[in-house]
# Entry
Amino acid sequence: MIDYSRLEEIEKFFELPHDDAFKIADGSLKVMLSAPHSVTQTRKGVIKKSEKKTGVLALLLNEDTGCPSIVKTKNCGDDANFDAVSDYKHDLIDYVSNNGVKLLIDLHELAPSRKVLIDVGTGKLKNVKDTAIINRFLKAFGSRGMCVQIDTPFSASNPNTVSSSVARYCNIPCVQLEINSRLLYPQFAEYNFNGVYSALKEIITRI
# Structure
């Protein structure tokens, strides 16, 4: 059950000024969530819109399930999901390596103009290898009425993405999960934040 008052508090957290570029919320589970675009990011000198609900999901699920999470809290003129060198990725890789994390889910928002609702980016299977992991996403989201596509429109194949980097250095399955913003914001007819939340909770707690 989502604590909506806590959800609002976390939303406000991402609107506050922060000294640190990112926050790691410790946890005991072996699935870790990442939200590198939870605040605005800068790619090739262009400031790109934040994907705030990804950070909200990561911190809510950390509190609810005990899964470790990392979220971006300050734009330092960088993009952790694009730059070759990134403190965010460095510390994430360090955490995964030292805490027995078995699966990383890197959360992103798809533009509402996209037709697809859920995209599971696997790096064309290079970042996952075990198709049983993909089936968990298909089942969890599909059973809640959300159509899932694999590596469409984004496969997360670029070696500098968070999921590709962690998969390469830590040798664990990593997924870049793209969630259409229509599912996350109440102004859209397809709004289903609770369904997204419960699907992620199912995946996190059953691995």
Notes: The radius of gyration is 15 Å. The longest helix spans residues 52-65.
